Amino acid sequence: MKNKTQKTTKYPGVYVDDKGNFFYQSEFGIDRITGKRIRKKGRKDVNGKPFASAFEANKELTRLKREYHKVNSYSNYKMTYEQFMNSVYIPYYQTNVEESTFSVRKRILEKIRDRFASIPLRSISVEDVQHFRTWLLTSIENGGAGYSQSYASLVFGTFRKSLEKAVEMQYLEMNISKKVRAIPKGKAIVSYWTKEDFEKVINQIYTEDFYEHLNFVMLWVYYMTGIRVNEGTALWWNDVDLKNKRLRVHHMLIMKTRREWKRNSYTKTEDGKRIIALDDDTINILTMWRNRQLEIGLGNSNDFIFSYDGLPMIKSTIGRIIKRYSQFAGVTRIQAKGLRHSHASYLINEFNVSVLVLSQRMGHSSPEITLKHYAHMWSGADTVIAEEMSGNIKIETAEYTKIIFNGNQVIKKKE
């Protein structure tokens, strides 16, 4: 039964309400699996703009019907999840993220694809989704994937997004995975070195050896600046102002191998581009290292700082360097990105740096992001303040009361 407040137009399925606003409302067909009628209704075009006329509403309705019938052709209707991933989602994802992001996530996409490979896209059930969720969170000993909660959350979230794209493309009427609870990320704990740990590590390095000298410089710069791993590997000597003691962080390195790399003129985020002030010790260490490089024909403006042969260092090599010297020093082994967290810890615990300064130094888009990652490191940082507060306020209470209580507990001031 039609709403009495809406009027028809010369276009079938296009109406105008009592306020003069145009909209479309039409049946597109019957779902072959559920048997339910498929109805569509809308008041805006593909760009989210309200219809200005019945003609515009009809144009959008025609487009949707054409797209619907195209997608719901027999071949697409029987499309398997593997076909959808290979022909639609993976290509879409690859063109919408950074090359480095895709190279990391590609394996996850393939794992999900292979899990549901032969199942028709429209036949994936709530039970299938729930079993997948359980498998992700179950240990290998019990027949599961054995993933950490944070990684399981990432995989499951990626799967949900793939089905959301299928809905957007009208291959599906609804995202069945939303009927199953998402996997919480959990608290990711990144190990880091304290000042004492770092001192033990660098004391294991024999800097007279050229390669070990490079190891020392890398660990030192990462620890003392907090730059991201791929920001550090991208550094050229023209990024350092040894005279004015400044480090320019404006690039990141995307690598496949040491010989296959791309130096992007931007960082992870827009606010990642920054200038970092360097301390005198770091300036001296960099100066000595550059002189050492110059002896073998490196150290020019467009040469990598972290290099022993003109080629950049890769993340896995940095990880091996950390592993080697942490074992020698008898301290906790950390990830390469743990050096960034170590820098934050160093500034907070040694200098009680403000969140604003730390945010700028780390290249975060806002102090809120900094607090999200490092708020726990300030625990106990207010102890000094509490000690300074002691006795700061002078206390001299009154020698007699200045109020009188009557039967109704009304407070009156003494005359």
Automatic annotation (TrEMBL):
* All copies of domain Tyr recombinase, residue ranges: 188-388
What GO terms in the biological process aspect are recorded for it? DNA integration; DNA recombination
Q: Which CDD domains match?
A: INT_ICEBs1_C_like
Keyword Cell division listed? The answer is no
Q: Does the keyword DNA-binding apply?
A: yes
Q: Which positions fall inside the Core-binding (CB) domain?
A: 83-167
Q: Name one GO molecular function term.
A: DNA binding
Query: Which key words tag this protein in UniProt?
Result: DNA integration, DNA recombination, DNA-binding
Instruction: List, alphabetically, the Gene3D superfamilies matched.
Output: 1.10.150.130, Intergrase catalytic core
Pfam families assigned to the protein according to its UniProt record, in alphabetical order: Phage_int_SAM_3, Phage_integrase
Q: Per the similarity annotation, which family is this?
A: Belongs to the 'phage' integrase family.
Q: What is this protein called?
A: Integrase
What is the originating organism of this protein?
Bacillus zhangzhouensis
